[in-house]
Write a structure and sequence with these properties.
The protein has helices at residues 48-56, 95-101, 105-109, 113-127, 173-182, and strands spanning 2-7, 40-45, 61-62, 76-81, 89-91, 133-137, 145-151, 161-167, 185-186. With 187 residues, the chain is α/β, with parallel strands linked by helices. The strands form 3 sheets. It has a 4-stranded mixed sheet. A 3-stranded antiparallel sheet has the order 1-4-8. A two-stranded parallel sheet has the order 3-9. Helix 1 crosses helix 5 (173-182).
Amino acid sequence: MRLYRCYPRVPGARKGRPGHWSYLPSPQLHGRWDNADLYESWYFSRSAVGAVAESFYGKRQWIPEVFLSPAGDPRAIAEFEFPDREAGLLDLDDAATLLRLGLRPSHVVIPNLRLTQGIARDLFDEESADHVGMSWWSSQLPSETSVLIWGSDGLPPAGLRLIGIQSLSVEHPAVVEAASKLYRLLG
């Protein structure tokens, strides 16, 4: 399966360091499903448009500076290949899965970190032996799918293979499409 991740790229950054696609801030505390004491949260989208939407939704107008890192370098989107283990992702967009887990759709999408991080803790404890992570609908663009792969030791998830990296700008096709779907002004 293809996965996408936006990040503040710094040319020449070393693996695992700020500005490299493999860098994760530590500790991770503010993401919807974060539980830094149990696992590292590797967040992705199943599409480039979804990754852009999740990363930049908070900005009302997407001007060129939005797509620059703090150092002034273009932010980037990385594309990955991940072993197609659909059974390996706990699908929180599946009614039967939610029913089995005793969850409601609103539990998945609510912006309440205490609730969602508690759910994630329970899911990791109960499901990590059979799953590598989970997927759910994007809270920004419900037509897109977000993915979390559980990680450890500061290393990218096993099997994750970088396909390519593209600089983001107001002209990038994924930015243009995400802006249109989110009703954001470009330029």
